[in-house]
Amino acid sequence: MTTVRVVVAGAVFHQGRLLAARRSAPPELAGRWELPGGKLEPGETAPEALVRELREELGVETEPVGRIAGEWPLKPGYVLQVWTARLLAGEPRPLEDHDELRWLTPERVDEVDWLEQDRPAVAEAVARLRAGADA
Ligand SMILES: Nc1nc2c([nH]c(=O)n2[C@H]2C[C@H](O)[C@@H](COP(=O)(O)OP(=O)(O)OP(=O)(O)O)O2)c(=O)[nH]1
């Protein structure tokens, strides 16, 4: 049996903007922008993993709200799932894995070079932001 590991990423919303994070590693992804997150650990649900990863990587407390439908292949053996999330507390800082963060309004979402695999979820997140969703 082959097990596919899930990477959960957050479309974090705050005051009408979406959080984008620029990866600092590995070399093949460094400089590209993503929705921050990470791999599920054994026994964790996706929302639990997301809360943990965003705390570790950005130093913030968040509340996952809803899954963006779909699943996108990453490197072999990994798939990306995305949840919208609300910022509850803290100011995101690039503590791990990233070297720059940016809050993007819907109009400016294309100003960063998103990883291809993140683009469908980013488009859906922006559609929700434009519709007035707060996560
Ligand atoms: N976090 C995140 N990773 C993504 C995205 N798109 C994408 O291709 N990836 C890739 C990059 C990494 O190879 C993998 C996630 O690994 P990670 O390094 O963020 O996860 P992690 O914190 O659990 O890492 P680790 O130290 O346990 O290896 O998925 C995305 O939007 N968010």
Automatic annotation (TrEMBL):
<dbReference type="InterPro" id="IPR020084">
    <property type="entry name" value="NUDIX_hydrolase_CS"/>
</dbReference>
<keyword id="KW-0479">Metal-binding</keyword>
<feature type="domain" description="Nudix hydrolase">
    <location>
        <begin position="3"/>
        <end position="128"/>
    </location>
</feature>
<keyword id="KW-0460">Magnesium</keyword>
<dbReference type="InterPro" id="IPR000086">
    <property type="entry name" value="NUDIX_hydrolase_dom"/>
</dbReference>
<keyword id="KW-0235">DNA replication</keyword>
<dbReference type="InterPro" id="IPR047127">
    <property type="entry name" value="MutT-like"/>
</dbReference>
<dbReference type="InterPro" id="IPR015797">
    <property type="entry name" value="NUDIX_hydrolase-like_dom_sf"/>
</dbReference>
<keyword id="KW-0515">Mutator protein</keyword>
<dbReference type="GO" id="GO:0006260">
    <property type="term" value="P:DNA replication"/>
</dbReference>
<dbReference type="GO" id="GO:0035539">
    <property type="term" value="F:8-oxo-7,8-dihydrodeoxyguanosine triphosphate pyrophosphatase activity"/>
</dbReference>
<dbReference type="GO" id="GO:0046872">
    <property type="term" value="F:metal ion binding"/>
</dbReference>
<dbReference type="GO" id="GO:0044715">
    <property type="term" value="F:8-oxo-dGDP phosphatase activity"/>
</dbReference>
<dbReference type="GO" id="GO:0008413">
    <property type="term" value="F:8-oxo-7,8-dihydroguanosine triphosphate pyrophosphatase activity"/>
</dbReference>
<keyword id="KW-0234">DNA repair</keyword>
<dbReference type="GO" id="GO:0006281">
    <property type="term" value="P:DNA repair"/>
</dbReference>
<keyword id="KW-0378">Hydrolase</keyword>
<dbReference type="InterPro" id="IPR020476">
    <property type="entry name" value="Nudix_hydrolase"/>
</dbReference>
<keyword id="KW-0227">DNA damage</keyword>
<dbReference type="Pfam" id="PF00293">
    <property type="entry name" value="NUDIX"/>
</dbReference>
<protein>
    <recommendedName>
        <fullName>8-oxo-dGTP diphosphatase</fullName>
        <ecNumber>3.6.1.55</ecNumber>
    </recommendedName>
</protein>
<comment type="similarity">
    <text>Belongs to the Nudix hydrolase family.</text>
</comment>
<dbReference type="GO" id="GO:0044716">
    <property type="term" value="F:8-oxo-GDP phosphatase activity"/>
</dbReference>
